[in-house]
Amino acid sequence: MSAAILGWSLLLAQIFLALAMAIAAWRIMRGPRAQDRVLAMDALYVNGMLLLLVLGIGTGRTLYFEISLAIGLLGFVATVALAKFLMRGEVIE
Amino acid sequence: MNNLAALPAWAALITAFLVLLGAGLALIGNIGLIRFASFYERVHAPTLGATLGMLSILAASIVCFSALQTRPVVHEILIGVFVTVTTPVTLMLLVQATLYRDRLEEKDPLEKRAAGDTAA
Amino acid sequence: MRRLLPYPPISLLLLVMWLILNQSVSPGQVLIGGICALLGPLVLTRLDVPQLTIRKPWAILRLLGRMAVDIVRSNKNVARLILKPKLERRAGFVAIPLAIRSPYGHAALACILTATPGTAWVSLDPADGTLIIHVLDLYDEDDWGAIVKTRYEELLMEIFE
């Protein structure tokens, strides 16, 4: 019984997170300005990271944790570089 | 999902609740990304998923894996620390970049505040 | 000693992080982690990081407790604000004169304010210490300044100054 509840709630959580990623993707396409797109991309990768964590709970594999850690770090660097680019027009001064 | 059948009932229920809470918060945050009209309002929206949303999903994973005893439960703390330390940096830089770009176009939101319009 | 280990807390953090990442305390991993912990902080000496002094380590726990309460509460408030059928636009900027001068205090305050949804750090004037934040649900401008000053600034000054 409890395993069934957990299975369904994991499925529902995955649907929620996929929807959240779709919304972020819509904001990336819609804009209206570059900073809105970068912000939406930041939200997109955070949600992707959470989705991988939920998948990791569902399957019980450690692999997903390493992937989500890597996504978290790479997403941080990407967003910082893009924000820097918006401010100065170059990433490394 | 065969490995989850071995989970005790209390752990399964706690995990289910925390996972749903976290995913729900992340979804609400991204709905805010659509609904808010200006960039400065939208900055607040994704932090829902990046703070409490992330923490509750990490807590769910800690509960689940320590009940199953398949591996030590320290990975999650590391992700939590990384994300809590990095999110403020990205958001601050983005807000600074936006402020800079707005000023370049001579639409300084801070001057509007002085003029009495707080809806920026 | 100072040449070998310029920042002992950071070396310790690096070692602990390495061991957590590899999930073992076998001698080999401790050795590699130790090498990382020795070499990593050498990069920082090039950056000329200001010296960190912590006056009251136990006050950090109180700070974390307050942060946890505020994060939960503001998550609830912002979620309710987003889900309201009709959006009220009450967002705005607030200027707060800060008394705290320690750069680590500023950094900690920035993390706290950004980590609680509903407030975002906009800019800080380093000359006179005027902080500008953006607040999503602005009901009273003076109120927000008082919240930041009494809840966090005093505690941060106790810790860092």
Task: Describe it.
The complex is a heterotrimer of chains A (93), B (120) and C (161). Chain A is mostly helical and 93 residues long. Chain A has 3 helices and no strands. Chain A has one domain: Helix Hairpins (Orthogonal Bundle), CATH 1.10.287. The termini of chain A are far apart. The longest helix of chain B has 30 residues, at 75-104. The radius of gyration of chain B is 20 Å and the shape is elongated. Mean pLDDT of chain B is 79; it is low at 114-120. Chain C has 5 helices and 3 strands, in the order αααβαββα. Chain C folds into 2 domains: 8-47, no CATH class; 57-160, no CATH class. Classes of the chains: A mainly alpha (93), B mainly alpha (120), C mainly alpha (161). Chain B: Keywords: Membrane, Transmembrane, Transmembrane helix.
Q: Indicate the mean pLDDT of chain B.
A: 79
The biggest sheet of chain B amounts to: none
CATH topology of chain A: Helix Hairpins
Which CATH architecture of chain A is right?
Orthogonal Bundle
Helix content of chain B: over 70%
Tally of contiguous helical segments of chain A? 3
Main location (chain C): membrane
Subcellular location (chain C): Cell membrane
Membrane topology (chain C): Multi-pass membrane protein
Family (chain C): Belongs to the CPA3 antiporters (TC 2.A.63) subunit E family.
Give a quick summary of the entry.
The complex is a heterotrimer of chains A (93), B (120) and C (161). With 120 residues, chain B is mostly helical.
Key traits:
heterotrimer, B: 120 residues, mainly alpha, 5 helices, elongated, disordered C terminus, C: 161 residues, 2 domains, 60% helix, 12% strand, globular
